[in-house]
UniProtKB/TrEMBL annotation:
Domain GST C-terminal as annotated: residue spans: 89-224
Similarity comment text for this entry: Belongs to the GST superfamily. Zeta family.
Molecular functions per Gene Ontology: maleylacetoacetate isomerase activity
Higher taxonomy: Bacteria, Pseudomonadati, Pseudomonadota, Alphaproteobacteria, Rhodobacterales
Annotated region described as Disordered, given as residue ranges: 203-224
PANTHER family: GLUTATHIONE S-TRANSFERASE YFCF (PTHR42673:SF21), MALEYLACETOACETATE ISOMERASE (PTHR42673)
PROSITE patterns with a match to the protein in the record: GST_CTER, GST_NTER
Name of protein: Maleylacetoacetate isomerase
Organism: Paracoccus onchidii
SUPFAM superfamilies: GST C-terminal domain-like, Thioredoxin-like
Enzyme class of the recorded protein, top EC level: isomerase
Enzyme nomenclature, EC number: 5.2.1.2
Domain GST N-terminal, residue spans: 3-84
């Protein structure tokens, strides 16, 4: 019996955006279910039943309910190995994972909605943007140094095909732009951004395509 693949996410969620890219790169047909973070839908009993952490994304696949985007990316790679989003060489795999984790475990968590709301409550509305810009700018500077290594040349984060690192970096760059943090001065990141901006699976996953003010299609069937 085949199970429908359902991605529960919010159009501006960068963790959800990671999975939107990976699902397309791997050609996995799916349906998207919008969870409106601004309206607080992620705290509803229905959503908390899917994800006890009350976060997006959640992926229903193969009869499983999966949470934590990096764990979901690993699941997709293990169950649908082609096209590979991890290189074959163990050292290269470690590097790709290190980039993904540097973003997902270091930069992203302290830019999260609940953290920004707490910073604003403690230190005022200006502190929210200052905190976030500083965090993203410092984080991207470190990522640039990680990418700028002879063993990891290419038009993507590693080599000339997309990897898990690109699935995580591109949403972080979307966040950077939203918050007015530029990255033109970081040549490797700018190169990866330009490469992915010309790739149909990355453009199809872009948040603008899911902006409810542009198009009310929260539960519409989508194919990669
Ligand atoms: N580590 C989690 C992070 C998930 C996460 O932080 N999701 C955000 C949206 S990008 C969220 O649901 N935020 C709700 C909130 O902060 O209240 C993952 O990678 O899935």
């Amino acid at each position: 019996m085949s199970h429908p693949v359902i991605l529960h996410d919010y159009w501006r969620s960068s963790a959800g955006y990671r999975l939107r890219i990976a699902l397309r790169l791997k050609g996995i047909a799916h349906r998207r279910q919008s969870v409106d973070l601004v309206a607080g839908d992620h705290r509803s009993p229905d959503h908390v039943a899917l994800n006890p952490q009350g976060l997006v994304p959640v992926l229903e696949i193969d009869g499983q309910v999966l949470t934590q985007s990096l764990a979901v990316l690993d699941y997709l790679e293990e169950t649908r190995p082609q096209p590979a989003l991890l290189p074959a060489d163990p050292a290269a795999r470690a590097h790709v994972r290190a980039i993904a984790q540097a973003i997902a475990c270091e930069i992203h968590p302290i830019s999260n909605l609940k953290i920004l709301q707490r910073v604003e409550a403690l230190a005022g509305p200006d502190a929210r943007a200052a905190w976030n810009r500083d965090n993203i700018a410092k984080g991207l500077t470190a990522i640039e140094a990680m990418l700028d290594h002879p063993a990891h040349t290419g038009s993507f984060c590693h080599g000339d095909t997309p990897s898990l690192a690109d699935c995580v970096l591109i949403p972080q760059l979307y966040n950077a732009t939203r918050w007015g943090v530029g990255f033109d001065h970081l040549p490797r990141i700018a190169q990866v951004a330009a490469t992915c901006a010309a790739h149909p699976d990355f453009t199809a996953a872009h948040p603008d395509n899911f902006d409810p003010s542009r198009e009310a299609r929260a539960t519409e069937e989508e194919t990669p």
